[in-house]
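Study both lines:
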Amino acid sequence: MSKSQPSSQRLSQGSQGTPRSQSQYVGTGEIKELARTAVRYMLMNDFDKVPIKHSDIVRNVTKNISKNTGQVIQLAGKMLKDVYGIKLVEDHSKNPKQYLLINNMKFQEHIALSPTTQAEMTLLTIILTILFMQTNGRWRDCGVEQSKIHGFLQLLDIDPTEIHDHFGDVKKVLELFKTQKYLDVVRIDNTDPPKYEYRWGVRAIEEVCPRETLKFATEIYGRDKIESWAAQYKAVVEFEALRGQS
């Protein structure tokens, strides 16, 4: 008498082995197992903060039951939040779909950053602050022309076309910020030759605190209170009320 196959083998045949009908029922247990696999896959592929493509999850996780990918990703997102404190965010600016993992832990001072990463984060903070202030707090839906950002950086002796003693290859770092979705570069309508503007990317919007950004600007400009920036402060307060923050 033949013995029944272990569930892991049945899962392997269903999602990795011979093709199965898309109409075939997929049980709750299999969805959970696939979600756990998706969590492992996303954590392993997030080490450089590059967005994870929906198509890669289908190719490497759900495979022959791709119609259930949405259900698997939804459950994986819940697991990431409950177990690791990580928020799974879909980047709606891109088609096809891609996802970012956002660390929701508010207190991460214990995490040691390499000197290179510290320098990159300093440069990112400078750029995001310029964007925040120049858009009068409309950091989520407005941008600043690329040439103006480069001009601001040059005032700080940071030339985007040259190697900087502290920040390294600035042009390469800016490309990294774009890839990681800290920055978006958007073509400005009706410009010929084309012009572009920098905007906060979806990762920056999710990870970076606008109040802290305004505090940083206040310190840089030597002001005493963040309230002295009327438009920006109002935007921060409205944002925090919307998010239910104190």
In short: The first helix runs from residue 7 to 15. The chain has ten helices and eight strands. The two ends are 66 Å apart (CA to CA).
